[in-house]
Amino acid sequence: MFKRISVQHLTTGMYIYEMCGPWISHPFWRSAFLLTDASDLQRLRKSKVTEVWIDPARGKDIAPGVPCVVWDPQQTSDPDRTPPTAKPQARPLAAIDTAPTSLGKELHTAMALCEQSRDAMLDMFSEARMGRAIGMDMAENLVNEITGSVLRSPDALLSVARLKTADNYTYMHSVAVSGLMVALARKLGHDEAAVRRAGMAGLLHDLGKAHMDPAILNKPGQLTDAEFAHIKGHPRAAYDLLCGSSDMDATVLDACLHHHERLDGGGYPDGLGGDEISLLARMTAICDVYDAITSDRPYKKGWPPSESLRRMAEWTGTHLDKRLFETFVKTVGIYPVGSLVRLQSERLAVVSEPSVKSLTAPRVVVFYCTQSQRNLSPQLVDLSQPGQDRIVCQEDPGEWPFTHLETLWRKGAAATA
């Protein structure tokens, strides 16, 4: 016998059999579990889920007088008492709106998706640390939602996911790499199934870090040889963990195991080189490196996107696949959203949206004059239009005292919604 109750009547010790609502409405990797942690109870009450099904046979029952809907599987189901499905209420990709839209319109959805995805990944890493098998249903749900957002407007999710902190890096890195993989696969012309495999590889590639020593993983200084050897074990740990999932795709498993291999054979864990490294693993390597070096980490500040792309270009041929990297640059743009740039007019601007016409002429929000050293009234400018200013270089935001760049590019994107 199952009971549907309000989340306000939930208490620790109850067994949640199913959340009432789509997966994206709640922050948990699992859809069914024994509620033992008070912090999980608070997270659930703050989510968009208003009701859950509980199984009193596997946990605490409700107190007398608490309103509920009862469903007994031994009796004829009442159409007004929708029984639990025992399955996560996922939205298949076919049911997700993928019609292209503007960056401004997609931003709000992307922000909510990143928040939910971060919590889901945190929960999944916790499950992995405890040695529990990873169910692929929830991973597929997350990849579907990420894919839908990227198809609607690729720059929205990628821009928001880049705004991670050192504290949530591990979880948001997985989400960001998944989005980058979906965008790259689309740019390469892959079919829907291949795009979803790419998203899954990006989402799961670092799951092995759940078994790494947090003190080493987050060490602010240089690693010793022994510490680096420990960290190099995370691809194999991910592979071993995911092999326990019966429906795991073999190419995704391979990408999780070999995304740190190098074309010159100098990578790990197996020292593969050249064509020995699969296409999906080579794609994952590029997306993983880009998000890692553009992000703030406990031991170093992230590089600006343009500097990151310049460095990565130097690593092609030895570390990264040159052809795939060239396509990747077209995917993220030479000046990704949020980049601080200097214009020929000696004004500074922040990139608010790529241009469909030119990689070097995005839409920007001009806001500062370097000659007079004063703030300007923010102005949205499409550099791809005839007679407009042009970018001469990208600036390092760390060398300027600006703290409002994120607000500027978001307002600029919203203005084109």
TrEMBL record:
Q: Which InterPro entries match?
A: DUF3391, HD/PDEase_dom, HD_GYP_dom, HDIG_dom
- What PROSITE patterns does UniProt report for this protein, alphabetically? HD_GYP
Superkingdom per UniProt: Bacteria
HD-GYP domain location: 148-344
GO: which molecular function terms?
phosphoric diester hydrolase activity
Residues of the region (Disordered) are 72-93
Write down the SUPFAM superfamilies for this protein, in alphabetical order.
HD-domain/PDEase-like
Q: What is this protein called?
A: HD-GYP domain-containing protein
Question: Which organism does this record belong to?
Answer: Comamonas terrigena
